Amino acid sequence: MLSAEDNELLTRTGAETPMGRYFRRFWQPVALSEELPARDGAPIRVRIMGEDLVAFRDSEGRIGLFDRRCPHRGADMYFGRNEACGLRCVYHGWKFDVTGKAVDLPNVPPGARHHDTVRIQSYPTREYGDIVWAWMGPPERMPAPPELEYGLMPAGRRYVMKQLIECNWAQVLEGDLDTSHFSFLHMPAPSVPSNENPDAPADARRLRWIRNDPMPRFQILDHEVGFVVGGARKADEEGIYWRMTQFMLPAHGTGPSTLPGETYFGFTVAPITDEACWIYVYAWNPEREIGPEERAKLKKGHGVIAEVGPDYIPLRNRGNDFQIDRQAQKSATFTGIKGLAEQDLMIQQSQGFIADRTRETLTATDAAVARFRRTLLAGAKALMAGEEPTAPWRPEAYRTRPGSWFAAEGIDFEDVLLERFGDRRGRVQAAE
Ligand code: FES
Ligand SMILES: [Fe+2]
């Protein structure tokens, strides 16, 4: 449970809010690279943390990210001409390069000061792992972008997409960190044996263990850029079935199901407003290419990835009640909703646009949710008091892996991580 004040603090990311300032100390995803495919191509609208921006790829392939309002008289730069290394407002022809500097002011007399001083507000960008990232914090405090492992892969070993969710950003992270919900939300209907779920993202044995143990024991270990959560369940002769999730500041999550050799899943949440966000989702396999068949499967929705239309809006969404099938809910799946990601999207949005955390009743399996809130609130409050976060300055510490493992009973979580990843926090070296 949170006080009303802390719930506001946790969830609001506008430019003048404490969490908004904290988020602006980290690189934020603003678009997929594929949304800006061509040099001098059409600009796109970007809305992030309540700010209305426009992005374009210039003649040299660089990406500009501007305030939508032209500094002359406020015309919308989205309608601008993307030409010869700059975006030109079509009202009176003012033109700006990717840094925001005015490079042509055709209605300003030669020699006027305006030629040196006029700028449009712009944010620096980087492309990393098929995503365009923006730096919206103080220019003098700009670190390198986080080295999330998926982005270190050659393009053939990763799959990147995004999907809309119409609720506050923190609900998405909380849903991911609470892996105990798997024993319910993602299960077959009670009448279906564990080995007969057509939608099951895990094999039958894993499914049975998850289903039979709705109270996993959680352990949480802090690291330089967040924490790793282990959920332990009883398996058969394998001993303990561990599912491990990485959380990285401020809004990166991962999927815990991966066994060695399988494809990993992760995501980064970017608030659009306080009541909607983009989830940038990615799958990666450090050991092999993701072939056409697996790619087709990911495109149809798999793991944390939902099935989306060309506008990146999930096909099963709040507008159509996620196409809930009440007959299927009786006889096939716990929810009657197709797709693991869609089940998550449904339940997170069902908590409200901004969940009211003053009215909750938390239990032992919410340990990671509580840690997440404490970590974010502490970070935002510390920044308010003048203490800068250190995580943005540890881009290499973002190279972490989540995943599953089997261990004998009685083995410490740290040693499980060491066995599974060769590191006591699940950090990895860059893959070849
Ligand atoms: S409003 Fe943009 S050039 Fe005049
Ligand atoms: Fe889930």
User: Biggest sheet, strands in spatial order?
Assistant: 5-6-7-8
Morphology call: globular
CATH topology value of the largest domain: Naphthalene 1,2-dioxygenase Alpha Subunit, Chain A, domain 1
Number of helices: 11
Round the mean pLDDT to the nearest integer and report it. Answer: 95
Q: Which CATH class of the largest domain?
A: Alpha Beta
Give the strand content: 15-25%
Can you tell me the number of structural domains? 2
Topology (SSEs and partners):
Blueprint: H1 4-11, H2 18-23, E1 28-32, E2 44-48, E3 51-57, E4 63-67, E5 81-82, E6 87-88, E7 95-96, E8 102-104, H3 114-117, E9 125-128, E10 131-134, H4 149-152, E11 158-165, H5 169-177, H6 204-212, E12 217-223, E13 226-234, E14 240-248, E15 252-254, E16 264-273, E17 276-284, H7 292-299, H8 326-331, H9 340-350, H10 367-384, E18 403-407, H11 413-421
Antiparallel strand pairs: 1-10, 2-3, 3-4, 5-6, 6-7, 7-8, 9-10, 11-17, 12-13, 13-14, 14-18, 15-16, 16-17
Bound molecules: FE2/S2 (inorganic) cluster (FES) and fe (ii) ion.
The site of FE2/S2 (inorganic) cluster has 9 residues, from loops.
Architecture overview:
This protein has 432 residues and is α+β, with helices and mostly antiparallel strands. It folds into two domains: 102 residues, Rieske Iron-sulfur Protein (3-layer Sandwich); 273 residues, Alpha-Beta Complex (Naphthalene 1,2-dioxygenase Alpha Subunit, Chain A, domain 1), CATH 3.90.380. It is 21% helix and 23% strand. It has eleven helices and 18 strands. The chain has a four-stranded antiparallel β-sheet with strand order 5-6-7-8. Strands 11-17-16-15 form a four-stranded antiparallel β-sheet. A four-stranded antiparallel β-sheet has the order 12-13-14-18, sandwiched between helices. Strand 7 and strand 8 form a beta hairpin. The radius of gyration is 23 Å and the shape is globular. The two termini are 44 Å apart. The model has no long low-confidence stretch (mean pLDDT 95). Bound molecules: FE2/S2 (inorganic) cluster and fe (ii) ion. The site of fe (ii) ion (FE2) has 5 residues, from loops.
